[in-house]
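chain below, 324 aa
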Amino acid sequence: MSEINEIKAFIGSELKTFESYFKNAVKTKVALLDIVTNYIIRRKGKQIRPMLVFLSAKLNGQINESTYVAATLIELLHTASLVHDDVVDDAEKRRGFFSVNALWKSKVAVLTGDYFLSKGLLTAIQNKEYELLEIVSDAVKQMAEGELIQIEKSGKLNITEEVYFDIITKKTASLIASCTATGAKSAGANPETVEDLKLFGKYAGIAFQIKDDLFDYEKTNMTGKPTGNDIKEKKMTLPLIYALNHCEHFERRKILHIISQSKKSHDKVVEVVDFVKSKGGLDYSENKMNEFKQMALDMLQKHPDSPAKTNLTALVNYIAVRNI
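prediction:
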């Protein structure tokens, strides 16, 4: 965690100010909503997305009011998407804590997500930040499309590598790309630079999601075994797709049969994990992750050396080595 803490220290005052912006944006007089929003705020993640906004702004100029609006807008819409995702996935946990869906059920969760979404839109409109809103709204559209493509394809268990990259580009990378693009835009960067930073964010976002997918096979729970959550939910991620494309027909049929089952025993999940490892799925996926990480870092070479560039480089490297 020392790497991420050092990056946070570089923009510490900006992150502290941002927290006030975010808390003010979600203030409400509705008692139930206030309880739920406070629960969400107290369990915030590592704030990688706001960090990307601020670092991208510093790379291109000075952090200003528009930068805080951009970071707040993105964090509101990101939070809305997480709350809605937990309803879609019927997930009980989020970052190790009970999800809003688990504690207050789907009606409250959906409406809370809608509230965060609307507050994000209002934050941009009230500050007349229409160009920032356009960038982020396009990302939200793509996120919904990506989720629906994944749902459609997962039922058929026929996701190709090409479709997988389309899904994660829409579901994950689009919002991270909007962080870097709005950060640059808020600092007055020209349109070409904004597009370059958007592409930088897209590559970093793809690397981020591949790393997340690897956790399903590497990360361990209390028993010391891989969690296998994606396998249980029939999600076809890159390690599995690669393994299925590099095995005998009878092996593919057997593994797909296990994945298609609604309920899988722990032994069956471990069988799939072992299969993916034996076919080189993890090594291939890690190589792909590093390819996209390097593509992101190459985009930064267009910018002169600066503390912001150094910390953006460190953040991209952290994405690829983090353990949570």
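The longest helix spans residues 191-218. The chain has 15 helices and two strands.
thats it, cya
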